Amino acid sequence: MNKKQARSILDIMASMFPDAHCELNHSNAFELTIAVLLSAQCTDETVNKVTASLFQKYKRPEDYVAVPLDELEQDIRRIGLFRNKAKHIQALCRMVLEKYDGLIPEKHEQLVELPGVGRKTANVVVSNAFGVPAIAVDTHVERVSKRLGMASEDDSVLEVEKKLMKLVPKEEWTDTHHRLIFFGRYHCKAQNPQCSICPLLDVCREGKKRMKTVSNRKSI
């Protein structure tokens, strides 16, 4: 795919989801980091239900390390992999207290050193909390990018990120990240994509296949 083709896709997505944004509720960089950590293999909706009370009980890193691990586990038990995530949260909070005076670091290379924080989480935090352009590749971004031919089917998550960074102007990275997520979450779903009404059907490999299958069924 070339930049002209990508521009057309980005403009259509922008018209579909002009107000795309981070749907994880948070009021600061620390809360966002915890929320993104919790969101791995879990919906934003479930995370927001859990953090509604979690962020009332725990305001600072000190609060998370002051309770027994099993208490924190109970507080987030509705989240998938809650035991591992509780361990990561406490370890992350200890490192933030020891190394960064209780504040979430602003640099990507510092963030990825925190327990439970990978490249995707770091990208979400730097872009949404600190205004640094970044494209975080989650399951929606990966699926949509591959279906639309912005990345190859066998590309790794990192390869998808690199290809998107080349195709998308840097100042649009963060907005594009949100729009790709909204497009994947509300339109181009994993199981039931809305191919029949999709304005990007002509460039979507997956969509063309699905529509051809539907057409063949009707003709039988």
Description:
This protein has about 220 residues and is an all-alpha fold. It has a single domain, classed as Orthogonal Bundle (Endonuclease III, domain 1). The chain is about 60% helix and about 0% strand. The chain has twelve helices and no strands. The protein has helices at about 5-15, 30-40, 45-55, 60-65, 70-75, 80-100, 110, 120-130, 140-145, 155-165, 175-185, 205-220. Helix 1 (about 5-15) packs across helix 11 (about 175-185), helix 2 (about 30-40) packs antiparallel against helix 8 (about 120-130) and helix 5 (about 70-75) crosses helix 6. The mean pLDDT is about 95. Its EC number is 4.2.99.18. It catalyses: 2'-deoxyribonucleotide-(2'-deoxyribose 5'-phosphate)-2'-deoxyribonucleotide-DNA = a 3'-end 2'-deoxyribonucleotide-(2,3-dehydro-2,3-deoxyribose 5'-phosphate)-DNA + a 5'-end 5'-phospho-2'-deoxyribonucleoside-DNA + H(+). Its cofactor is [4Fe-4S] cluster. Keywords: 4Fe-4S, DNA damage, DNA repair, DNA-binding, Endonuclease, Glycosidase, Hydrolase, Iron, Iron-sulfur, Lyase, Metal-binding, Nuclease.
Structural descriptors:
single chain, 220 residues, mainly alpha, Endonuclease III, domain 1, 0% strand
* Beta-strand content: under 5%
N- to C-terminal separation?
35 Å
Q: What name is given to the CATH topology?
A: Endonuclease III, domain 1
Q: How many domains is the backbone divided into?
A: 1
Could you state the CATH homologous superfamily? Hypothetical protein, domain 2
Q: Could you spell the SSE succession in H and E letters?
A: HHHHHHHHHHHH
